Amino acid sequence: MAMKKAASPPYIDLHAHILPGFDDGPETVEESIEMARAYVEAGYAAVVATPHVIPGVYENTRASILRGVKRLQQRLHDAGIPLTVLPGAEYHLTDRLVPLLQEGGVLTLNDTGKHLLVELPWVHLPAYASQVLFELLLAGVTPIIAHPERNEFLARHPEVLRGFSRRGVLAQVTAGALTGLFGPAERRASRIFIEEGTAQFVATDAHNAGRRLKAGPEAMRLLGAKAQLLICEHPAAVINGAAIYAAASRER
Fold it and tell me: Could you tell me the CATH number of the domain that includes residue 200?
């Protein structure tokens, strides 16, 4: 008797700019549908829609994102595309983030109230960063730093991310960084963060159906046995509101 082929694990992308017209991602719903088809082809079962929230640039709100996710999910259902789209956002880290959370204006990943995707500036680490991250933890919300390898300061000083990790802060590296899409410095930093356990997720940060999304399957191959943990099990825990504990990194 022929043995059944094992089912592929349900990969989940925690960081995806798939909502049309919300930020620098797709402009039209047709482009979003094209992305959804590419995700399914790449082996993903679900993505968390994480449009930018940047004061003065992308003033997306919790309510508008929830409505956008509902509309897109209906369009995918009508098109017969088996991809689940969940609500979330990528918040630029500012000193107003904790007050916004206290006012009920923040959308956590899958709206569970447990995990928040935050983005740092590209070059420096703001003086208030540590305090804001700690205050989020005190409020019961675990920050997940998006693509720390693309922050030049953290890439040069991985010990800083180790310090955040010891306090309970999580991090997500980008699939394209692992594959070398953004250059050698980002590739090296992303691999250090995964090896040290200071990054617990790998996501595409895709803005269209192009290179970033297509880097997902290549990153899965590079990760080998770690792929299921970083692209399946840990993301599944997040969308279910379950706790993930940052690994204690060894001193260097």
Answer: 3.20.20.140
